[in-house]
């Protein structure tokens, strides 16, 4: 498929040299799409995203089999910073805003790879049009903003690097349902209007399937099912085993 932006081919991940966590995971993300990696606690979603953005080493993890390609080129050996330069940015689970910095300072920190101040200012304006709440809270210290605002700040900060592919880890975590909905609506808008491609990891399968176009269900380190989101949402096994969780 030539519209595949990201291809993960049979990756195996081992932590601490012995703990096999991903047991041959393959997935593809279509250019301009929203793909969802779905599954319960400990299924391996975060590990898969970390493998893609080469963030496993700090966790004593290692990809021991398989390959990862961005638009047909191997990216397995690129550092997280090199990946950012190629347009791949990860938004970590748990949001990770700099608590003592203001929302605006957090956003500007996301533009660290960029040099032209005019472009950075234009990008900041763009982030504020998608996240009006962040504009209102621009001068507030992140520590004093709500969980939803911090999640928005983390996504906004990723956008400041001008990515073409955003890996979004568990955006719904710890948020009230209407805030989750607000965050997903913004993701949908960014995808439609800015053509940002998303791969999101979610435990909230029901919500994710409403916004994604393709889903991969991960269980115990293996993809056990995948398909177009409406097909998965209507599948009897998915309904019985997964919907209602999260
Ligand atoms: P969650 O929603 O809880 O983050 P997840 O689907 O993202 O779940 P992972 O965090 O990828 O799952 O974890 C998959 C498995 O790998 C779990 O059994 C977890 O205990 C294990 N694991 C994760 N990180 C490490 C680590 N640094 N060292 C050892 N084992 C780990």
UniProtKB/TrEMBL annotation:
It comes from the Bacteria. PROSITE patterns: ABC_TRANSPORTER_2 (PS50893). Keywords: Amino-acid transport, ATP-binding, Cell membrane, Membrane, Nucleotide-binding, Plasmid, Transport. GO terms for biological process: L-amino acid transport. One of its GO terms (molecular function) is ATP hydrolysis activity. Residues 6-245 form the ABC transporter domain. SMART domains: AAA (SM00382). The keyword Kinase does not apply. The keyword ATP-binding applies. Coiled coil: none annotated. PANTHER family: ABC TRANSPORTER SUBSTRATE-BINDING PROTEIN, HIGH-AFFINITY BRANCHED-CHAIN AMINO ACID TRANSPORT ATP-BINDING PROTEIN LIVF. Belongs to the ABC transporter superfamily. This is Amino acid/amide ABC transporter ATP-binding protein 2, HAAT family. It comes from Methylibium petroleiphilum (strain ATCC BAA-1232 / LMG 22953 / PM1). The lineage of its organism: Bacteria, Pseudomonadati, Pseudomonadota, Betaproteobacteria, Burkholderiales.
